[in-house]
Specification:
The complex is a heterodimer. Chain A is of the alpha/beta class. Chain A is 30% helix and 16% strand. Chain A is globular, with a radius of gyration of 21 Å. Chain B has a single domain, classed as Alpha-Beta Barrel (Aconitase, domain 4), CATH 3.20.19.10. At the A-B interface, helix 2, helix 3, helix 5 and helix 11 of A face helix 4, helix 6, helix 7 and helix 8 of B.
């Protein structure tokens, strides 16, 4: 019996309040609870019914992102909400945060943004923390060596009331990306290649650690993109061991430890990476150097293939139905599919490096006539940083729309949506039927691939548009 | 808080053989702007059941039967993948389902379903194929013995997390259990934070 522990083992063990038994799951303490307007109102209702208070408002942060418009307010200052319900939902979180003394990044707060963008940006996301949110893409925060996972609304209520969740320890899995990425290949392509390899349920019941040279090479933003997509392989948890890049990224951020606290934290964080001979329930290796820019061609994220490929033959009823929905002809090159809309944004790909990668391709070029391109920064901070670099003008000059931060067309519940039958190349995370609007066909891709597709008007390989320098925008 | 205890259920099945039925199919995101758990039944599988003009289609397997007698959904593998929205089990319960059977049920959906009294039942691939091939069959799910049975002596077993099973059998939600752990939680906070 070895005492070697994985990153995941260490994160888990240090947060167990009550050990797991045959009869009951572990009681796990949560260091950071992120909440947003969609999955919290019913949890606050339960608190009210039971006359409970939020136990640790100091460990809770609230933001508004899913239902919020990305178009600016009108002359009277009124935001163009999609529905009255959307506005009511936003107001419910504002009211609940006030009542329970939870720090809220309100509509006018310069720190507001998509929950999985602002946590790291503020330095609230840190190595060694347990982080939950009523949102399946919470695994994003695992990029910092945190144990971060999505929960349901009942569990949001549990965390609000007790700062704990009931959870059985999942199986462990390590995915090694050996080798180096080729030019024009990004973290998004690694994620899609990984999901294609293990399947949309390949990580079910597992906590995944991403490791290997290509993961080490990724910038923090690239690591966030990779961990973000864990759930599309069925895994609630995805993580990367913290290293010097992690520490450098966090140092000096508003909510990161300062002074002596920083030194102490650093010492602790450096002990987190997986021990040399730690065991995993499952381990797989992917050759990163063989990954191409990827797109999806079906209605599940595991239907992913290199962008320069062709629509595969269908072997199952579900795959045939998916191909019919996508209206992609068997054997036809992906590049023969005409694009109606391009969406660059979401918790997967809306950070500064993503916008730079898209702008690099759009600079000096025009979005093809008939294509609508939407660029939605992940947060107010990303928006400001992008505008300081004049990226917004690059997008506008190309004919793309530059919007206010939010989840926007990723979940399409704020009014930003495609029309039935439209083909959308999207940097988001889900190509489910109707996800971006009823009858909308979604192709998932990296920001570079999405931008190239906007220019060409067909699904396009970004590599031919890349200048040599800076071709790997999400690699530091 | 007390829920309706779940011990056993005998009902007819509705079959959706598609694999990877995600939570956006179960309830499209535009219905998530509610602040209540109630009233989501008609939003269940909305885009499968209604056409672009908002009229009920006639060809959906989810309509044209008495919901009270069809409380078991049998679905293709990896059911409930995608988002963490608890609106998915709320919508299925509101529609009239009490249990979902598949060969493979997504983690967060499963966790959410159990907390709301919707029983997720994952069975082996062979038994799953047989149930998929028998829409409208009368099936019994016994949580006490963890078995699914139908017809002449056909049965199979299923796993369910022990604590969630106890909560369902007793009709209690887990919040009370967690609130009873507050002294331990307080000690943990003093020690670690």
């Amino acid at each position: 019996m070895t005492s070697a522990q994985s990153l995941f083992d260490k994160l888990w063990q240090s947060h167990v309040v009550v050990e797991e038994t045959a009869e009951a799951p572990a009681v796990l303490f949560i260091d950071l609870h992120l909440i947003h307007e969609v999955t919290s109102p019913q949890a606050f209702t339960v608190l009210k019914e039971r006359r409970l208070r939020v136990r640790r408002p100091d460990l809770t942060l609230a933001t508004l992102d899913h239902s919020t418009p990305t178009l600016p307010p009108d002359a009277k200052g009124k935001l163009p909400y999609a529905t009255k319900d959307a506005e009511r939902q936003v107001n419910a979180l504002i009211e609940n945060s006030r009542k329970h003394e939870i720090q809220l990044f309100d509509l006018d707060d310069p720190r507001r943004g998509i929950v999985h963008v602002i946590g790291p940006e503020l330095g609230a996301t840190q190595p060694g923390k347990t982080i939950v949110c009523g949102d399946s893409h919470t695994s994003t925060h695992g990029a910092f060596g945190a144990l971060a996972f999505g929960i349901g609304t009942t569990e949001v209520g549990h965390v609000l009331a007790t700062q704990c969740v009931l959870q059985r320890k999942p199986k462990s899995m390590r995915i090694n990306f050996d080798g180096r990425l080729a030019a024009g290949v990004t973290a998004k392509d690694m994620a899609l290649a990984m999901i294609a390899e293990i399947g949309a349920d390949g990580g079910q019941g597992s906590a995944i650690e991403f490791a290997g040279a290509a993961v080490g090479d990724l910038s923090m933003e690239g690591r966030m993109t990779l961990c973000n997509m864990s759930i599309e392989a069925g895994a609630r948890f995805g993580m990367v061991a913290p290293d010097d890049k992690t520490f450098a990224w966090l140092e000096g951020r508003e909510m990161a430890p300062q002074g002596d606290d920083w030194k102490r934290a650093l010492e602790n964080w450096k002990s987190l990476p997986t021990d040399a001979d730690a065991a995993f329930d499952r381990e797989i290796t992917i050759d990163a150097s063989a990954i191409s820019p990827m797109i999806t061609y079906g209605v599940s994220p595991d239907a992913a293939a290199p962008v320069d490929g062709a629509q595969p033959e269908t072997t199952t009823v579900s795959a045939r139905e998916a191909a019919e929905y996508m209206n992609f002809d068997e054997g036809a090159l992906f590049s023969t599919n005409k694009v109606d809309r391009v969406f660059i944004g979401s918790c997967t790909n809306s950070r500064l490096s993503d916008l730079r990668a898209a702008a690099e391709i759009m600079r000096g070029r025009r979005v093809r006539d008939g294509v609508t391109a939407l660029v939605v920064p992940g947060s107010e901070a990303v928006r400001r940083a992008a505008e300081e670099e004049n990226l917004h003008n690059v997008f506008k000059a190309a004919g793309a729309e530059w919007r206010l931060p939010g989840c926007s067309m990723c979940i399409a519940m704020n009014g930003d949506a495609g029309k039935p039958g439209e083909l959308v190349v999207s940097t988001s995370n889900r190509n489910f039927v109707g996800r971006q609007g009823k009858g909308v066909r979604t192709v998932l891709a990296s920001p570079a691939t999405a931008a190239a597709s906007a220019i060409v008007g067909y699904i396009a390989d970004p590599r031919k548009y890349l200048v040599e320098k800076g071709a790997r925008a999400d690699v530091a | 808080m007390l829920l309706k205890p779940f011990t056993s259920l005998t009902s007819l099945t509705v079959v959706l053989p598609q694999e990877n039925i995600d939570t956006d199919q179960i309830i499209p995101a535009r219905f998530l702007t509610t602040t209540s758990k109630k009233g989501l039944g008609d939003a269940a599988f909305y885009d499968w059941r209604y056409n672009n003009e908002g009229r009920l289609r006639n060809d959906s397997p989810l309509d044209g039967f008495d919901r009270k007698s069809h409380q078991i959904l049998v679905a293709g593998s990896n059911f409930g993948c995608g988002s963490s929205r608890e609106h998915a089990p709320w919508a299925l319960l509101g529609f009239g389902f009490q249990a979902v059977i598949s060969s493979d049920i997504a983690d967060i959906f499963k966790s959410n379903a159990l907390k709301n009294g919707l029983l997720p039942v994952a069975i082996d691939a062979k038994a799953h194929r047989e149930l998929l091939a028998s829409p409208g069959a009368e099936v019994t799910i016994d949580l006490e013995t963890q078995t699914v049975s139908f017809g002449d002596g056909w049965n199979c077993v299923f796993e369910v997390e022990a604590f969630a099973r106890r909560c369902l059998l007793d009709g209690v939600d887990p919040m009370g259990y967690l609130l009873d752990r507050i002294p331990e939680i307080r000690r943990f906070e003093e020690r670690a934070h």
